[in-house]
Amino acid sequence: MASRKGNLMGVRTDIKVLDATIRDGGLCNNFGFTDDFVRALYKTNIRSGVDYMEFGYKASRNMFNESEHGKWKFCKEEDLRAIVGDNVSDMKIAVMADVGRCDFKTDFLPKSESVIDMVRVACYIHQIPAAIEMIEYFHDLGYETTCNIMAISQANMKQVEEALEMLAQTSVDVIYLVDSYGSLYPETAQELARTYLEVADACGKQIGFHAHNNQNLAFANTIEVLSYGVSYLDATAMGMGRGAGNCAMELLLGFLKNPKYNLYSLLTFIENYMLLLKEEGVVWGYDLQYMFTGQLNRHPREAMAFTAEGRKDYCEFYKSLLECF
Asked: Which domains does the chain have, with CATH numbers?
């Protein structure tokens, strides 16, 4: 099994930082970011040394009404190019494609015609065969690919091992460990990470980690798994993301010792843009209701409804969750 890789003072050149603020944060405001916001974040990420910026989803326009969502639910090529042009920077552009929620055979151009560099295929563990079909399709188009297996805390180890063995035989570049429910602790996160890494090392693939902050452990879990060799790390500005949010980019960049990462530019963006979102009433971040669903290893949808209703009856809500077991 893998042992710790490097030390707190060293630089790991294999680490890649991915900003998911627009994609995961878009779940907080229905992707209603202004072009000014997205363009400013794009420039901030370049100055901050971020390796990948995920702009949003490539959701099906047959399943989802474009008039009811912001443009980053769909990430059309013309909308991306309006922000990044030909993206002459070193930072790469990513989008997410959900299994069963995208029209991947019609909505993606060949990589040679697109400003997108990476497609992140998101699936639940029972959807691995469908995810593999998408991964191979995107690989053949010329894209870097990831497989983000969501809600991994609800899968048993036999399922995890079988999924990893299946993915090991594919063209996927990065396999993501995703703590969708924010239920993992550093010990369980590293145990899973070491299982992923053992398979990945044998077939020359990389492992990534996407954390949720239901128990205030997103950053702790991220730096725990990276210490064992996980190299693709997701984070968002001020932790903005669905429900309790994600690993905060400012924490991650402040932790990494590689001088390519610059915290100051991000702090300027937070002052000028993120604080305004909070003032406008966009809600995300740790709260008791998310702690409850994280501790109970449940989807945060009930906690999100609790938040949207402005409720504060934490005891009653906790009791209702317990009664569902």
From this structure: 16-279 (3.20.20.70), 288-323 (no CATH)
CB environment 314-325: b (16+ within 10 A), e (fewer): eeebbeebeeee
Long-range contacts of 126-135 (CB under 8 A, 24+ apart): 127/99, 127/100, 128/163, 128/166, 128/167, 129/166, 130/99, 130/100, 131/99, 132/166, 132/167, 132/170, 132/172, 134/97, 134/99, 134/104, 135/170, 135/171, 135/172
State the amino acid at position 38 in one-letter form: V
Spatial neighbors of 50 by CB under 8 A, at least 6 apart, are 17, 18, 19, 91, 249, 261
CA neighbor of 124 nearest in space, from 94, 158, 100:
100
One-letter amino acid identity for 174? V
Strand ranges, E, within the chain: 16-19, 52-57, 92-98, 118-123, 144-149, 174-178, 206-210, 232-235
Compute the distance between CA of residue 80 and CA of residue 86 in angstroms, rounded to an integer: 9
- Among 7-16, 113-122, 226-235, whose mean pLDDT is lowest? 7-16
- pTM for this entry: 0.97
Share of the chain above pLDDT 90, in %: 97
